[in-house]
Specification:
The chain has about 290 residues and is mainly alpha-helical. About 60% of the residues lie in helices and about 5% in strands. It has a two-stranded antiparallel sheet. α6 packs across α7.
Length: about 290
């Protein structure tokens, strides 16, 4: 039956929620382990702990390649607010994003954003040194993907509409981090506003590239065809390829209804929800309403 499929179950039982809780739980557990190690041991052990897991030009030169990913697990042990803000942003924007792209792609996107943010930060700070830690690049990617999927979504603060839309939030963060990169990070200046602006921009780039590659029909890397073709006399004759199947939606009777819904849900399972046509989405909603009334 349609309600036995994972896409139609109770939202609290969806695997998306499990992936979101897993990510938040991992960051919380890493913060606890980090504080235990620093509080109980300290000294040389704490220094080596940060040297191995945080990202730095010196560490990468020493072969600590894993720090490109592990730096996203650590946060400032003396600043609980930083961790809480990160978790809140993951929860707020992650719920909407994971519902659209699924748990597997969600985790892949977050990890890729953390890594690309680290690479961008290294490119800017290779000669200046320093250390990078935190998952802010992943949060930046979620905000960008959320804004691309829902550009007109109102942004609320404690249930109050502040008059901004998701696209305004993303553009505002882009401007802030762009100015911070140019005015503070590249010149190496210190300020109360100093932060890893380059890592944020790298995370935004990861989110934008993901959206362009998977949700935009204009992504040249994946959708363009080669502009140079072989001469006709050089090509081998080939049999006519099978015609692309045309999906027709039929909600006539019980057996036909079940078969049609199963076909649409199998298509979602294979190619993602974004692969559905507008007609298939509308028919799926009609089928759900029809079965709920029975």
């Amino acid at each position: 039956m349609i309600f036995d499929r994972p896409y139609m179950r109770d939202p609290d039982a969806r695997p998306e929620r499990s992936a979101l809780k897993w990510l938040i739980g991992t960051l919380v557990a890493a913060f606890v382990v980090e504080n235990i190690c620093l509080g109980w041991f300290g000294g040389d052990f704490a220094a080596q702990f940060f040297r191995l897991l945080t990202l730095s030009p010196e560490g990468l030169k020493s072969g600590f390649v894993w720090s490109l990913a592990t730096h996203g697990l650590l946060h400032d042990p003396k600043n609980l607010f930083d961790l809480l803000f990160t978790l809140l942003a993951i929860f707020v924007f992650g719920r909407a994003v994971i519902a659209e792209i699924g748990p597997k792609r969600f985790l892949q996107l977050f990890a890729a954003a953390v890594i690309l943010g680290g690479v961008t930060w290294l490119a800017v700070n290779w000669t200046q040194g320093g250390r990078l830690f935190g998952a802010s690049a992943g949060v930046s990617a979620l905000i960008v993907v959320f804004a691309c999927l829902n550009p007109e979504q109102p942004i609320t603060f404690f249930m109050i509409d502040i008059g901004a839309r998701a696209k305004h939030l993303a553009l505002g963060l882009l401007c802030i981090d762009g100015l911070g990169l140019i005015l503070l990070e590249i010149p190496g200046r210190s300020s109360w506003f100093s932060m890893a602006h380059s890592a944020h921009l790298g995370g935004m780039a990861a989110g934008w590239l993901y959206y362009r590659a998977t949700h935009s029909g204009t992504a040249p890397l994946f959708n363009s065809k080669p502009s140079i073709e072989l001469p006709r006399w050089f090509r081998r004759s080939r049999k006519a390829s099978a015609a692309t199947p045309v999906y027709k939606v039929n909600l006539g009777g019980g057996a036909d209804l079940k078969a049609e819904v199963d076909r649409i849900l199998d298509k979602i399972n294979s190619h993602g929800f974004q692969s559905l046509t507008a007609e298939e989405k509308r028919r799926l909603d009609q089928a759900r309403d029809h079965l709920s009334r029975r």
